[in-house]
């Protein structure tokens, strides 16, 4: 079973610069275990305490896995998994003052 995994730039140091790798597994957890066996260290950036890290978004065929079964989400041959770091931020006080919204 081959599953394509798209890797964000920040994690490509674990995949020798590859932006896409293939992996295997019946669930997302098994896929991450498989990736870890070939790309040591990547799993620790994705999973903490058996769950997805808070600031990591994972999509299965464009569906957010948090709205599916999380790390237990079932996978099928030919699926695409996209890993995206969450982006946080916003206008701080200095920005609100500058924009006249304070």
UniProtKB/TrEMBL annotation:
Matching SUPFAM superfamilies: MoaD/ThiS
Signal peptide stretch: none
One Pfam short name: ThiS
Gene3D superfamilies per UniProt: 3.10.20.30
Superkingdom to which the source organism belongs: Bacteria
PANTHER family: SULFUR CARRIER PROTEIN CYSO, SULFUR CARRIER PROTEIN SLR0821-RELATED
Protein name listed in UniProt: MoaD/ThiS family protein
Taxonomic lineage of the native organism: Bacteria, Bacillati, Actinomycetota, Actinomycetes, Kitasatosporales
